[in-house]
Every structure is written in structure tokens, then in C-alpha cells.
Design brief:
alpha+beta
Length: 190
């Protein structure tokens, strides 16, 4: 018989910074949680563009570019940890060497083969490239949520892939009927 515990993990959800979270790294961020379990959490910030385009990554990795569309795609700042490392959030329509399945439709890949395929125009149907990630140790994210630093909302592909970068924070909150600009210090979370 299993113990009666209520552990809820937030894989495949957004967490959005509450207006009271003023830390420069995470203020007004929307993060897609790729992995959340008893040992901690890993997520990718989805609303911080870097000054870099994907063609610069291709050139740094000495990868030939066939797809001009991919070359001009933005690269995002995925978080403060390992900013020299690339992370690709993508639809789960192809297989890659090092992939973490997040849901039936979304995955996170960190291997070179996906970048090479994107450069050739043969990558996943939809993708999002970031340098670095956001991470939390055991129980850290749960504590931050209890202190009202973060609000969790359902994941929505249109927010990640179709919404302008500067609107993602607000749109993630609006999915659950919240106007993020009207929340105050005493607000709770969903």
C-alpha cells in the first residue's frame, strides 16, 4: 500500500514571476518547467531574448547553414546556470541523441545533432533555442512558491511559439484569468 502523500510536481507547466519578485535575474519572467521532482527543478526562461541570432551559434559550432529562416531565429537567455550550454525546447516529432521528454508533445534536447538538423532546415517542426537554464535544489522551488514568488499556470504551445516575447509573462497568467499587473504583495497562487 502506498503512503498517503500529496506531492504535486509542475513538469510541463509555466511558472511566472509574481510582480513582487524583483530579483534582476527573474523579475517578470515566464519559465517553462521541464523537470520538477523531489530532487529539484529545471526550467527555461522563455521571455528573455539575447542579442544573439542562431546563425552565431552555427558559426561557433562550425555548422554549415542551409536554412536562412533558422539562421535569423533568436536565441534566448534560458537562465543563469550554464549559459555557455545550449538547450532546445521543441515539439516531439523527431528523435535526437540527448533528449528529455517533457510531455507527449514537448521535449528538451541538448545534443549537437538537433542544432545541425535545424541549420539544414531538417529540425523539429517547432523549436526554441536558449543558452543556460534556471534551476532549483531540493525543496527550493516549493519554498519560493509558498512565499508567493511564483505562480504556476498550464503550459500552452501558442505562448511559447506564437506569442511575442514581451507578452509571454502576461499571457501565461491570463490563461487562468489573472491580470498579472493587478496582483499585489498579498496575492496567492493557483
Amino acid at each position: 500500500m502506498k503512503p498517503m502523500t500529496e506531492t504535486h510536481y509542475l513538469d510541463n507547466q509555466f511558472i511566472i514571476a509574481m510582480p513582487t519578485l524583483t530579483d534582476n535575474t527573474f523579475s517578470r519572467t515566464a519559465i517553462y518547467l521541464c523537470q520538477h521532482n523531489a530532487d529539484g527543478a529545471l526550467g527555461i526562461v522563455i521571455n528573455r531574448k539575447s542579442d544573439m541570432k542562431l546563425k552565431e551559434i552555427f558559426m561557433q559550432m562550425d555548422i554549415s547553414i542551409s536554412s536562412l529562416t533558422a539562421a535569423d531565429a533568436p536565441v534566448y537567455v534560458g537562465g543563469p546556470i550554464q549559459q555557455e550550454r545550449g538547450f532546445v525546447l521543441h515539439t516531439t516529432d523527431k528523435k535526437w541523441a540527448i533528449t528529455l521528454p517533457i510531455s507527449e508533445t514537448m521535449s528538451l534536447t541538448t545534443s549537437r545533432d538537433i542544432i545541425e538538423a535545424i541549420a539544414k532546415g531538417e529540425g523539429p517542426e517547432r523549436y526554441f533555442v536558449a543558452l543556460g537554464y534556471a534551476g532549483w535544489g531540493k525543496g527550493q522551488l516549493e519554498q519560493e512558491m509558498l512565499s508567493n514568488s511564483w505562480l504556476n499556470t498550464p503550459f500552452g504551445e501558442p505562448i511559447l511559439f506564437d506569442t511575442p516575447t514581451d507578452l509571454r509573462w502576461r499571457m501565461a497568467a491570463s490563461q487562468i484569468g489573472i491580470d498579472i499587473h493587478q496582483l499585489t504583495v498579498g496575492a496567492g497562487h493557483a
